[in-house]
C-alpha cells in the first residue's frame, strides 16, 4: 500500500503529467473536454515509441518532422558510427524533448565480449554522445535484445528492450506494421521500430494518429517508467511498464 505522502506525490505527478500533456498536445485540448474536468480516473494510457539503428539523415529527419507536428516525444537508440556528420540531428532530437540512448558503435551483439570490447561499443558511443550534447543519462538497448550476465554487469545504465516488435526491417510493409502495433498496443507498451526505413517512418506516424484516437499519450521511456513510479536501475532489463 502507498503511504499518504506517496499517494499525494503520485497524484501530483499525474496531474502535472496531464497538465503538460494538455499544454503540449493539441489533440487532447478539444472544446468538449475542458482540462478542469480531468481527474486521475481519466489518466491517459501511456505508450513509448522507440527507434533503433539510426540516425539516417533522410528518414530520421522525416520522422522528427512528423513527430513535431503531432507533439509526440520518442526514444532513439543510436549507432555510434552514424553520429558523425549527424550532430545537428542528434542535437535536434535532444532539443525537441526526445530521449537518446545507445545501440552500440557498430551494431554488434554485446554478449560474449571482453570488457574492453564492450567499452569500445558502449562507452565510446556514450562519450561521443556526451561530446555532442553536453550531458549523460543515456540508456542502453543491446542489438538483437541479446543480454547476458556480462552485459548486465558492464552496462552501467538501465537496459531497455521492448514489448511490441512488428519486425519492420523484414518486409518493410507499413500497412502490416501499423496493424500489428495497433492490435498489440496496451497501456505501458514499448514499441520497437527502425527510423532508417521510409515505410517504418510512415508506419510510426500512422500508429501515432491511430493510438491518439484511442486516447494514448506518447512518452519517452524515461517518462513512461517515471509515471509508473518505477526507478530504472543500472544493469536491470526492462521490457514494458504495464500497470
Ligand atoms: Ni538494431
Verbal overview:
The chain is of the alpha/beta class and 243 residues long. 42% of the residues lie in helices and 13% in strands. The chain contains nine helices and eight strands. It has helices at 4-24, 57-70, 87-95, 115-121, 123-133, 149-155, 174-184, 198-213, 221-227, and strands spanning 45-54, 75-78, 99-102, 139-140, 159-160, 190-194, 216-218, 237-238. Strands 1, 2, 3, 4, 6 and 7 form a six-stranded parallel beta sheet that branches. Helix 2 runs parallel beside helix 8 (198-213) and helix 7 (174-184) runs parallel beside helix 8. The longest helix is centred in the N-terminal third of the chain and has 21 residues, at 4-24. Mean pLDDT is 88; it is low at 1-41.
Labels describing this entry:
single chain, 243 residues, alpha/beta, 6-stranded parallel beta sheet, two-stranded parallel ribbon, 42% helix, 13% strand, disordered N terminus, binds nickel (II) ion
Number of helical stretches of at least 4 residues: 9
How far the N terminus sits from the C terminus, by CA atoms, comes to 15 Å
Bound molecules: nickel (II) ion
Q: What oligomeric arrangement do these chains adopt?
A: single chain
- Kindly state the number of beta strands: 8
The SSE string, one letter per element, is HEHEHEHHEHEHEHEHE
Largest sheet: 6 strands, parallel
| Classification by helices and strands | alpha/beta
What amount of the residues lies in strands?
Answer: 5-15%
Global shape:
globular
- The share of residues in helices is 40-55%
Q: What is the radius of gyration computed over CA atoms, rounded to a whole number of angstroms?
A: 18 Å
Give unreliable regions as ranges: 1-41
Mean pLDDT, rounded to whole units? 88
Amino acid at each position: 500500500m502507498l503511504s499518504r505522502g506517496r499517494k499525494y506525490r503520485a497524484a501530483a505527478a499525474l496531474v502535472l503529467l496531464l497538465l503538460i500533456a494538455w499544454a503540449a498536445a493539441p489533440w487532447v485540448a478539444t472544446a468538449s473536454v475542458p482540462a478542469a474536468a480531468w481527474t486521475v480516473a481519466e489518466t491517459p494510457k501511456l505508450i513509448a515509441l522507440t527507434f533503433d539503428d539510426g540516425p539516417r539523415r533522410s528518414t530520421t529527419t522525416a520522422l522528427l518532422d512528423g513527430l513535431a507536428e503531432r507533439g509526440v516525444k520518442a526514444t532513439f537508440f543510436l549507432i555510434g558510427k552514424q553520429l558523425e556528420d549527424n550532430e545537428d540531428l542528434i542535437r535536434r532530437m535532444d532539443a525537441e524533448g526526445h530521449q537518446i540512448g545507445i545501440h552500440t558503435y557498430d551494431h554488434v551483439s554485446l554478449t560474449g565480449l571482453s570488457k574492453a570490447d564492450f567499452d569500445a561499443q558502449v562507452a565510446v558511443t556514450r562519450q561521443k554522445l556526451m561530446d555532442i550534447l553536453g550531458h549523460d543519462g543515456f540508456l542502453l538497448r543491446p542489438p538483437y535484445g541479446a543480454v547476458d550476465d556480462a552485459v548486465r554487469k558492464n552496462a552501467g545504465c538501465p537496459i531497455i528492450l521492448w514489448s511490441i516488435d512488428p519486425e519492420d526491417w523484414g518486409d518493410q510493409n507499413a500497412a502490416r506494421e501499423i496493424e500489428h502495433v495497433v492490435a498489440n498496443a496496451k497501456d505501458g507498451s514499448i514499441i520497437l521500430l527502425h527510423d532508417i526505413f521510409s515505410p517504418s517512418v510512415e508506419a510510426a506516424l500512422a500508429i501515432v494518429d491511430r493510438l491518439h484516437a484511442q486516447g494514448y499519450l506518447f512518452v519517452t521511456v524515461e517518462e513512461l517508467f517515471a509515471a509508473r513510479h518505477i526507478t530504472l536501475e543500472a544493469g536491470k532489463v526492462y521490457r514494458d511498464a504495464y500497470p
